[in-house]
């Protein structure tokens, strides 16, 4: 059966095909949209439709890793950001956890997201021009780095940002070596084809709590058990400079880092210009633009 491309423009997208943040449990939903909207011609993306992700062993050279590592260290240490909402600190340790809108804070990252090779990968999967829905740097320090519980990004972007369909991809570029032991990302191959409705209503300004520790918009343990038994779990490991491109609905998470080896990455979300945001589907108001951009200007190299 050939899936038809659903028109996800704002004026036609108010019918909610992915209801979530509900009062009672409902069955999982099989994805109503394609995974690949365009034509794949990059060998690295050959299994993207099946797995929901692709791994790139050397997206950045060692010299570029050193350059970007220095850049994100500079940003994290900038005293001007200490009281900026874009800087998120760990709930327990008060260490920097994430810095959002990093492509606006760094000319080097702004150039990175416009590189032809990177844009071409996103455009092949999404079948259109793209814009940056979100960018950030994630830090997971040694010994006390806190992980991210299992979740689908699309569930949050749909509920709280108003993203109509899972027509977005995330690119995670490792700036440090990712070992099996230092909280590297775990994914469930193929889980992007199953949407998991979550329980609970979204409080006002929920993002202030969820960016430190998410408790609403996460699957139940029963959900995770069902998906893990169906799809299995893989882990993204690799040298600094490697990268993971993955579908917005892929179930993923990471454990705490109690090793001496820190982990950090640049994280960029590309959304299709044909899937621009509408009003949130399950939240009282949209999140701030530094989390879910409403500047839909297509990127160009």
Automatic annotation (TrEMBL):
<comment type="similarity">
    <text>Belongs to the PhyH family. EctD subfamily.</text>
</comment>
<dbReference type="InterPro" id="IPR012774">
    <property type="entry name" value="EctD"/>
</dbReference>
<feature type="region of interest" description="Disordered">
    <location>
        <begin position="1"/>
        <end position="25"/>
    </location>
</feature>
<keyword id="KW-0560">Oxidoreductase</keyword>
<dbReference type="InterPro" id="IPR008775">
    <property type="entry name" value="Phytyl_CoA_dOase-like"/>
</dbReference>
<keyword id="KW-0408">Iron</keyword>
<dbReference type="GO" id="GO:0016491">
    <property type="term" value="F:oxidoreductase activity"/>
</dbReference>
<dbReference type="Pfam" id="PF05721">
    <property type="entry name" value="PhyH"/>
</dbReference>
<keyword id="KW-0479">Metal-binding</keyword>
<keyword id="KW-0223">Dioxygenase</keyword>
<comment type="subunit">
    <text>Homodimer.</text>
</comment>
<protein>
    <recommendedName>
        <fullName>Ectoine hydroxylase</fullName>
        <ecNumber>1.14.11.55</ecNumber>
    </recommendedName>
</protein>
<comment type="function">
    <text>Involved in the biosynthesis of 5-hydroxyectoine, called compatible solute, which helps organisms to survive extreme osmotic stress by acting as a highly soluble organic osmolyte. Catalyzes the 2-oxoglutarate-dependent selective hydroxylation of L-ectoine to yield (4S,5S)-5-hydroxyectoine.</text>
</comment>
<feature type="compositionally biased region" description="Basic and acidic residues">
    <location>
        <begin position="1"/>
        <end position="19"/>
    </location>
</feature>
